[in-house]
Write a structure and sequence with these properties.
The protein is built from five helices and four strands; from the N terminus they run H-H-E-H-E-E-H-E-H. The protein has 124 residues and is an alpha+beta fold. The chain has a four-stranded mixed β-sheet, with helices on both faces.
Amino acid sequence: MAAMTEQQEQIALIKWTQQPSVRQLYPELKFLFHVPNERADKIQAANLKRMGVKPGVPDLMLPFPSGKYHGLFIEMKKTGGRASTEQLWWLEHMKANGYATAVCYGWRQAVEVLTWYLNLKEPA
């Protein structure tokens, strides 16, 4: 079986989050969304930049508080992929501002991060 692309990994994750049994356990997943920040041709890239797109913004955001965190940012990577300097910069700054962050290598690792995050208890 061929390795999945980053896009295929993210699609597999979103499919997992949309299963009725998963949504029953974790209804907060309805708030999970993708930040469209992929590469584009020069004209589209210029328009996106004018609209506020910034390099390195994480792929997924769950704007739902859990435990001590305000929300969760996930940077998706295929198995063997690497996060860029810009992506690591965003994750570092989001973490410093009260968000949980993760680089996930494949959809199964992202499932582990999401379930960990959604099972956090409120701080005492």
